[in-house]
Every structure is written in structure tokens, then in C-alpha cells.
Automatic annotation (TrEMBL):
Cofactor or coenzyme needed: Mg(2+)
Any coiled-coil regions, as ranges: none
Species this chain originates from: Rheinheimera salexigens
SUPFAM superfamilies cross-referenced by the UniProt entry: Nudix
Pfam families, alphabetized: NUDIX (PF00293)
Nudix hydrolase domain segment(s): 5-137
GO molecular function: hydrolase activity
Protein name listed in UniProt: ADP-ribose pyrophosphatase
PANTHER family per the UniProt record, alphabetical: NUDIX HYDROLASE 23 (PTHR43222), PHOSPHATASE NUDJ (PTHR43222:SF11)
The entry's keywords: Hydrolase
The keyword Hydrolase appears for this protein: yes
Length: 151
């Protein structure tokens, strides 16, 4: 495996009023509409927390700070690439009245409980989406200070 096939990504598990925020997008491999947490690649010279805040703002229009993180997930995808995903928790006490995605690849934003996600019948981008929700539901909450700042 070449390094160009190894990707460092971040994902936001946003929980508000007993629901999770999902972005609807087109999967580049299957061309199907799928649900994902707001997520994306860490850019060059960007730390993990800056990356997830930027991705959340771009994909949802929400300017929030993470409260905790859930840990690291790994995926060997169908395209033979490997993804290392750092999952962050956002638990806002309130949301702005209006917000929207600034990313043209995001088709819609959805707030679903875990059961509503299942009942929606929509596919998820990968198993990592469901794994992150399960970790959140299990009460996993890692302090942000366990992520050392960039030196």
C-alpha cells in the first residue's frame, strides 16, 4: 500500500435534542445517496480539532466546538484505500435558527435518532457511521486534552 492510499480523516458526531446530524451525499464509488456524519480529510498544516471544526462549518454551516472525542476508527475501503478516522463529539446546548451547507457535494442535512436513521432506509457511507453512533450511545467520552497539540 502506498502512502497515497492512506487517509487521515475527521468526523463530527453532532447530538442535539436526542438526534444526530447527518449529511446526505453521493457515494463516489456506488453513486448512491448515502448518509454520513460531517467528515473529511485533514488538510496539510492543519491540526485535528481545526480540521473537524472546518469540516463541520463547510458541510453544515454550524460553527461549534467539540466537547469530547470518541476515539479512532479504521476502514479498509472497497477502493483498497485505508482510512484512519478520528471521531469528535459536538453537543450544543442550542443551535442557530438558520444554517446550511457551504459544500456543493452535500445534498441535504438530516436530524435522526438512531431508530429514525434505521427507519429512513437510507444507506450509510460506511460502517464507521454506525460504529460512531454506537460508541456515543455507550457513553464513550474521551477528554480533548488527550490529543496533544501540534508541535
Amino acid at each position: 500500500m502506498s502512502r497515497s492510499q492512506l487517509h487521515l480523516t475527521v468526523a463530527a458526531v453532532v447530538h442535539y435534542n436526542n438526534k444526530f446530524l447527518f449529511v446526505e451525499e453521493i457515494d463516489k464509488q456506488s453513486q448512491l445517496r448515502v448518509l454520513n456524519q460531517p467528515a473529511g480529510h485533514v488538510e496539510e498544516n492543519e491540526d485535528l480539532i481545526s480540521a473537524i471544526c472546518r469540516e463541520l462549518l463547510e458541510e453544515t454551516g454550524l460553527n461549534l466546538a467539540p466537547t469530547h472525542w470518541l476515539g479512532i476508527s479504521q476502514l479498509h475501503a472497497a477502493n483498497d484505500h485505508r482510512y484512519v478516522r478520528v471521531n469528535f463529539i459536538f453537543e450544543p446546548s442550542q443551535l442557530p435558527e438558520h444554517y446550511r451547507s457551504h459544500d456543493p457535494d452535500i445534498l441535504a442535512l438530516h436530524w435522526y435518532s438512531q431508530q429514525q436513521l434505521i427507519d429512513s432506509g437510507m444507506a450509510v457511507r460506511s460502517q464507521l457511521v454506525l460504529d460512531a453512533i454506537q460508541l456515543f450511545q455507550q457513553g464513550v467520552r474521551l477528554p480533548l486534552n488527550l490529543i496533544q497539540p501540534t508541535r
